[in-house]
Amino acid sequence: MESLFAGGLAxxxxxxxxxxxxxxxxxxxxxxxxxxxxxxxxNALAALAMGLAVVGLLVQLHPPASVxxxxxxxxxxxxxxxxxxxxxxxxxxxxETVALFNGCGGMASLLVAVGVxxxxxxxxxxVDLISIAISVVVGAITFSGSLVAMAKLQGWLDxxxxxxxxxxxxxxxxxALVTLAAAxxxxxxxxGLPLLVLVVASSLLGIGVTLSIGGAxxxxxxxLLNSYSGVAAAAAGFVVGSQLLIVAGAMVxxxxxxxxxxxxxxxxxxxxxxxxxxxxxxSVGGGGREAGYTxxxxxxxxxxxxxxxxxxxxxxxxxxxxxxxQAQHALRELSKLLEAHGVKVAYAIHPVAGRMPGHMNVxxxxxxxxxxxxxxxxxxxxxxxxxxxVIVLGANDVVNPDAKTDPSSPLFGMPVLEVDQxxxxxVVKRSLGAGYAGIANALFELPQTAMVFGDAKxxxxxxxxxxxxLGVGKAKATA
Length: 479
Description:
By secondary structure, the chain is α/β, with parallel strands linked by helices. The protein has helices spanning 2-32, 39-61, 65-88, 94-119, 126-154, 167-185, 193-211, 218-240, 243-267, 271-276, 301-310, 320-324, 328-340, 359-366, 377-380, 402-405, 456-469, 474-478, and strands at residues 313-318, 344-349, 374-376, 389-393, 424-429, 449-453.
């Protein structure tokens, strides 16, 4: 008996040690994610931490042999799905993938809490029952809200007209009250009707809140859902007694909330207005319609190439159009050609460019753009007056000077990239369609701006052809 007790105690200590090591590695991994240069290694470190946490939990629980089969099958299927997704998802679909992963995290926390409520509530304390309720509510909202966000980003779901009226507030308030009532009743009946009501009402609330949010606010929504998934994971950590889930969930929840606030500031939007004030852009497609421009100047890739040949400093401004065209590799080739010609090249990154936080950073990192060339808005804005040529690739609202000068503009007060201060600006777009805000862009009519109409990849390839024809980069390459 003593040997069995000693063996069980040793196993418990081993599990706790692995859990503690996992917490430490995860903290180091999350810290590494704060820098682009260390992000890849940090991601691998965090993955290792999660693997150790799983092993530590299994060592402590020591499930029967029959359960190991389910664990092995579930882990194998999940790992296979992750590998296939990572290999096949294009960069343009990365925001949808992130939203889906947030939803999966919320669903995992939800299922853990429901499982404990159904089969382990007899031994649960009041703190455990409260944690179950929190995990169910936040997990269900995260899961259903993430699915709606993914569907809207993918273009499968439009914003219904009724969600832009006051009716949605009544529906969401009613769902919130039902959710609150079920959560209060859950500790007394952990496996009964309140649990079912709580799951259904929370899921519908996640749909109701997210359904009315427009495409322009999607970076904020993805950040917020990421925070929710962290809160749900932390609550699930209390339910199952996992230190890693508690620490990781708290860190992810806090980081997601901070990032959400950064996104709101970058868009000059409050979180309340994003969640309850209606859509800044009613549909994810944003600006299919064209505004009434009267002073547009257009040019060919040949003219743009001549300006690049004479430039000493060039700044590229990537936007979602660059991702759609899958032109990041061609852009990197163009920048290397200019650098070989002695041109100083940089990339101006707006916090909400693309459809998720860091979308442009990830896009350009895929093309091996040097990290030091990726300059944030506050760093690059003072340098635009000394910039010879700016090339805007698919960006729209984030370069609209009306945000600084026109109090009547819905963008007024939003921090933007001040590309209008550069000596010459070329805007690469397929058309004059408006951005997410649905308004004209004053940048397009400035005297130093010229439109280069066409697919971003085709235009960049045209620039490469022209520059090579002009002998750009050859002198240094042969020296």
